[in-house]
From TrEMBL, chain A:
It comes from Aromatoleum buckelii. InterPro entries: Cell_div_suppressor_SulA, ImuA_translesion, P-loop_NTPase, SulA_CellDiv_inhibitor, UCP037290. The lineage of its organism: Bacteria, Pseudomonadati, Pseudomonadota, Betaproteobacteria, Rhodocyclales. This is Translesion DNA synthesis-associated protein ImuA. Keywords: DNA damage. It comes from the Bacteria. It holds the Pfam family SulA.
Amino acid sequence: MSTSPLATLAGLPPGLLWPADRLARPAEAGVPTGFAALDAQLPGGGWPRGALIELLIDAFGIGELALLLPALRAAAPERWIAWIAPPHLPYAPALAAAGVRLDRLLLLTSSDPATTLWTIRQAVASGGCSVVVAWLPNAQSAALRRLQLAAEASATSLFVFRPGGAAQQASPASLRLRLQPAPDALVLEIVKRRGPPLAWPLRLILPERPAAFPSRAARRCSGLR
Amino acid sequence: MLWFALILPDLPLQVFTRGVEDAGLLAVVEPQPRATIVAATAAARVRGVERHQGVAGALVVVPELALRERDPALETATLAELATWAGRFTPCVSLDPPDAVLLEASASLRLFGGIDALAQRIAKAALPLGLTTTLAAAPTPLAARWLARARPGTLVRPSEGWAHALDALPIELLADGAPVPAATLELLRGVGVRRIGELPRVPRDGLARRDASVVTDTVARARGRDPDPRPRFVPAERFASRLVLPASVAHTEPLRFAAGRLFSNLAAWLAARRAGLDCCRLHLEHDRAPATVVEIVTGRPQRDAARFVQLACEHLAALTLPAPVEALRLTADAPVALPACTPDLFDGESDAAREAALRLLDRLRARLGRDAVHTVLPVADHRPERAGRGRGRLHGARDHR
């Protein structure tokens, strides 16, 4: 009696084998992103935990923070949400209106890149942060590798904003997304994920834009709905 | 009371030879008042170099002899290093300059399985430091010191009549660790006293008249009849250790051995503080150029010397030296307490998270400064750039727990 190799493979316990044409199934489910279309395309059904997530953007204020807002809202109340080296001062009323707990938001400014990297590593490794968001305008591959290792050893999701030109370079991050602005929406191109490449970019309608003035954002959102 | 005395024989020489596997022909010179040899390596002594010999004479005997000037500051630092390291055996550690460290270990005996086991353990643990030590134990600090000097390895237990162990020691030891002047020793030798056990036969009033009552006092302290309190050694808040190489080194390969010594020290300092470290700096000092600094970063706080050495070796291998290296210095600050794991029965998860959040805050503020760490708070202001201000509001965030 002979069995086909495929049938043998299919008989293995789940988790041992990962066919490259399917999304990886991590042991721990991800943090829901708040966007069903994006959740469906991410391994684990959301932002991976304990991983480095690269968000590649060419300009600030295109709605990149709105993409993270659902994850920030869901953060555990006893841990920090650390923002490391943001390029601009965050607009507190909009964040508060979006439901982010401002008393848990830890803003860390840093003068030089080495200190920024140190701060990110500390925030990730301490276990005292549920989400770490960092802005790294120029990061070396070795530094990113260290961050990925530090994130893997913890349960913290580490979001790193990098310039769009970095999409051509290799990176140890487990998930890389390129964000581009579109009228009233955000276009997401999945540069790298644990799974087959995505042929078409995702188009997400953002319900809230904290970077914009609240009244205008509300008008725009209501018009979209 | 049970005191262990750890003596570093030939300390002026040891501070130079501990960083290399074989120091070769090396002698240490005391420049004042006349350049004389203080100590020499075994290889040099075999060739005929002796203590108290003039430098010129020594160079006639061994022309290729390498000379280093004595470095009292480095000797003091090395002694403090040994005292820090000894903190792993007992918290009661005292410095006994110029070359000894005293440990009061009566409270630690049970933990380490008795006096013999502890003595073996101390001797074995001293090896990675690269320092040669002699050890003895006795119920008083002076007795322990004299025994370590004259009869290394003697372990005298506190019992009735233990002080007779001192009787056979020569009276020259009186000047070791006690303020007995050479003239007094000369006087005692003149009246025929050779051993400490013979001192009680000398009339006390006669000694007092000749300004030698210090002898009676010293012996009373050594025998435990008078108290002999010692100030306790407190380990430094920041770690800084320097290791001078006997000769300048142009390649990074030989530096690994010396770096291993420094990291053993660092591990001892961390063990004494029950802490771990995730970042330290190794300075390679050159003669004329500014020091090359190697920053060693580990992923998580730890105190394992082997891990640090491994990382340091990786850094050193990738390094090109701008100039020959004269000395190595290792500095570290901001140790992180590595508490023993305490399992919680109820709701340990969120408590641990709060604790970790506070620790992170302390650590970030220590390194970045208070101004760089803040939260945001909405402020009623029509100007968007003023609507979120949060500097200095972190006390509120701390109190939130």
